[in-house]
Amino acid sequence: MKEIITYLEMKARSHLNPSAPVPGLVLEFLDRDSPVVVDLQARIGAPYGWESASRTPEEWSVWFAEHPDRTFWLLSYEREPAGMLAYDLHPGDEVEIETFGLLPEFGGKGLGGFALTLGVERAWQLTPLVKRVWLHTSSLDHPHALPNYHRRGFRTVRTEESERGRGEPS
């Protein structure tokens, strides 16, 4: 299946165009050892063919070992797990939003814009001198993903075409 990967960036915190707040939607640190991390990654990614939706426990062990510095954050809506973000810090004071998504049952409720706002605000706070926040998305992801990134102030820096189905961002 053909897909287009779009890479986006935000080079200044002031470029964030925040969404209107959604009462009851919060972003909280999630311990990487919590079983919720695996559950959320699998459930968020299942509709989009992410590899996380079908990893075995052994594959998860290897995956966690390969990503020792990744941090995870839980999106909760009215105290219920609604989605998650994961971040990687890169040399040059760059933060990559490696995973962003809502659980399927929370889609279509108007949460995505504010969820991304919370995630981008957190990204700018992860280190004292962040110079760039970036991410990538696929044409196989939720159809509102790319427009939401653009509305929040990300700009496209490049695209790539692939003939294979999307695995989850590693």
From TrEMBL:
According to its UniProt record, the EC number is: 2.3.-.-
Give a single Pfam family match: Acetyltransf_1
Presence of keyword Transferase: yes
Q: Name one GO molecular function term.
A: acyltransferase activity
In this protein, which residues make up the domain named N-acetyltransferase?
35-170
InterPro entries membership: Acyl_CoA_acyltransferase, GNAT_dom
Keyword Transferase (UniProt): yes
- Keywords per UniProt: Acyltransferase, Transferase
Which protein, by its recorded name, is this? Answer: GNAT family N-acetyltransferase
Which lineage?
Answer: Bacteria, Bacillati, Actinomycetota, Actinomycetes, Streptosporangiales
